[in-house]
Amino acid sequence: MPNNKRKRVSKIKDKEKAHPYSRKARQINRAMHKETNIAKAKSERINAAMGRGQKIIWFRDNMDQTEDDDEEEVDAKLKKKVWTMVELRQLVDVYLARNDEDLETLLAKKEEGKNLLQKESLFLQLVDLEVKEAKLAGVEVPDLTNGAVVKALRAWDGDLNSITTIKLITCKPASIIPIEEEAKNSRRGDGAKADKVPQLLTEQQAIEMATGMAVN
pLDDT at residue 74 above 80? Predict the structure, then answer.
């Protein structure tokens, strides 16, 4: 019986002599396809981990500061053990605005009719997608409402292998909350109005109300 076991390409013997339509050629193609898929999946995992790591590093390095902080205020904040959910949402807004300066530069360049480089166009698309996803579904961030997570984040050295020690939660930016509340109130108001709409009378009911007599 033929050996259909998928091997690594490097382990297949006499692969250079394989006829293009032979059984060995098909075996080589299967092995190459498998190795390509494995390499692609590994690359995607690494890229995802790096992206997650960069985000966590940003929160580690920026959670204690805002643009208006002076040195004394920052030192006081360093003693902070936990954040409220409102404060965390406000920090998410700051995170989403981290690229605003570069964004404004590229948009101004675009308005002037200048052609953007491919990487610049991709950057604009990624920023736009990130903001839209954050507003619709939220963004995964370190759970600063948990004191243990805050402590672990402060101690984290940026090693991706230990990134699992940082618990993440999905959090929407504070700027979107008033919009959602307004939409909810609007829907409640529409529902109340619908309840108050009078029901149309049937012809029989109209005659009975006008004559005071029951119509059989």
Answer: no
Select from 48, 50, 2, 49 the least CA-distant residue to 23: 2
- Which tokens in the block code for residue 77? 């904040």
Residue with tokens 């698309």: 125
> Sign (positive/negative) of CA torsion 91, 94, 99, 103?
positive
What single DSSP character describes residue 4? -
Residue 134's closest CA among 97, 163, 85?
97
The residue type at 48: A
What six digits make up the tokens of 125? 């698309």
> For residues 9 and 35, is the Cβ–Cβ distance under 8 A?
yes
Residues in contact with 118: Cβ distance below 8 Å, sequence separation at least 6, in sequence order:
none
Distance CA 71, CA 66 (A): 11
Output the CA angle 122-109-125, nearest 5 degrees: 20
Give the list of residues 6+ apart from residue 59 with CB closer than 8 angstroms, or none: 91, 95, 141, 142, 144, 153
Predicted TM-score (pTM) of the model is 0.65
In DSSP terms, 168 is beta-bridged to 142
Q: What is the pLDDT of residues 193-204, one digit of tens each?
A: 555 545 555 656
Distance CA 174, CA 85 (A): 9
- CA distance to 52, 53, 127, per residue, from 124 (Å): 19, 21, 5
Residue 119 predicted with pLDDT over 90: yes
